[in-house]
Amino acid sequence: MELSTAAKKVVVFDYGFGNVRSAERALARTGADVEITRDYDRAMNADGLLVPGVGAFAACMKGLKEARGDWIIDRRLSGGRPVMGICVGMQILFARGIEHGEETEGLDEWPGSVEPLQADIVPHMGWNTVDAPTDSELFAGLDADARFYFVHSYAVHDWSLETHNAAIRAPRVTWSTHGKPFVAAVENGALWATQFHPEKSGDAGAQLLNNWIGTL
User: How does it assemble (predicted)?
Assistant: First the structure.
């Protein structure tokens, strides 16, 4: 069933890491006009840019830079143009990633480190609930017990970004728990992201993507 959203142009950024076809199909379900590309002009001019990510933090950062994705994301955000990251596409938005003792610089849009999950069972694979802020736009219309699909071994366990200017809306941070609580999603101005895979999360994921598209 196609959800009721005006056709917005959305680019799924193809830098070699991510389930781009799954993301394309999920976004198309919202009624968006979706294209998979790494073309600079198309990525810059789209109403929304989706950055997926699967694999190691360091490899994703390398692929992103080779495709000039780091520059595109920075330029879009500088102009208030919406960007959404998924899974490792969220993780690379933080300052650094630490995997197997190796530290890799991220895009530093948010402070914090992506580190190994602190849980008895890793990876965290399967369905889980989240604790979203009451004023969340991303999770609007979703029940508190809605479940989303996670596949990851690393996460951000601490959130340190604060907004002291009353005129600027503070970031809305959503949490989930696997062993220790971790950041499951962030809404911060034009930059939104999820640790889970909305494109694999059934109707709940479709509603979440529809919420994002509706803000473009």
Answer: Heterodimer of HisH and HisF.
